[in-house]
Amino acid sequence: MSELPLFPLSGVLLPFGRVPLQIFEPRYLDLVRDCMKTSSPFGVVWIRRGAEVVQRGRAAPELGDYGTCARIVDWDQLPNGLLGITIEGAQRFELIETHTRANGLVVGQVELQPATTAVPLSGDWLALLDVLRNLETHPHVQRMNLRLDYNDAWQVGYTLTQLLPLDESLKYELLGLDYIETLMTELHALLNQLSGAQ
User: Fold this and answer.
1) Strand partners of residue 100
2) How many C-beta neighbours within 10 Å does residue 30 have?
3) 81 CB neighbour count, 10 Å cutoff
4) Sequence-ordered alpha helix ranges (H) in the chain
5) Which pLDDT tens digit goes with each residue over 52-76?
6) What is the pTM of this model?
7) CB of 96 closer than 8 Å to CB of 1
């Protein structure tokens, strides 16, 4: 069991995925500073219900049962004066329990899952790689500076899941899958739905 500071988000972070964030709450500014100083990860968990910004009198957000370790891969001051960071997903974890520090930061007791082992991209999955390559031509995606091994099915599947315009609850379900064959089969079905194919 490990202890991880948590960053609850209304979006899902997947291993190998990259997400830009704006940081403005003091507890998360402290979290980012500490993690950058020590090159340590923090945990990103999906908010099933509730809000990212806690408001007086509102119930605490309800968090997912699992999440993704995140590392800060880029940072900059944004034109609006806020701190902008880009995070990249690493290994998954099960969230066992949480407690809240005096500054409002949620800390989780987590069970880290083994990192994925590279799986060769089979011929059945090449269509998914084509979709990913097309998405990478978009300027928003190019700014993320993705670094991927296109021969690893896990990296292709997770990154595609991160980039596709899917409901966050769907991304959360896909994050919870343990087998690459299941993930790729689900992605094929979802892409067929998005394209209107039967």
Assistant:
1) 106
2) 15
3) 7
4) 26-38, 126-135, 139-142, 153-163, 168-175, 180-195
5) 444 444 445 689 999 999 999 999 9
6) 0.88
7) yes
> What tokens does 198 get?
């039967």
| Residue entry with tokens 């090449």 | 126
**Amino acid, res. 192:** N
Please give the angle made by the CA atoms of 175, 179 and 183, to the nearest 5 degrees.
55
DSSP type of residue 15: B
Q: Tokens 């021969």 sit at which residue?
A: 151
pLDDT digits (tens, 9 = 90+) for 126-147: 999 999 999 999 888 888 888 8
- Residue 21, both tokens: 């964030």
Residue in the structure block whose two tokens are 């980039």: 163
Q: Quick one: which H or E segment has residue 138? A: none
Structural contact between residues 72 and 19, judged by C-beta atoms closer than 8 angstroms: no
Strand partners, 5: 107
Mode of pairing for the β-strands spanning 62-77 and 83-100: antiparallel
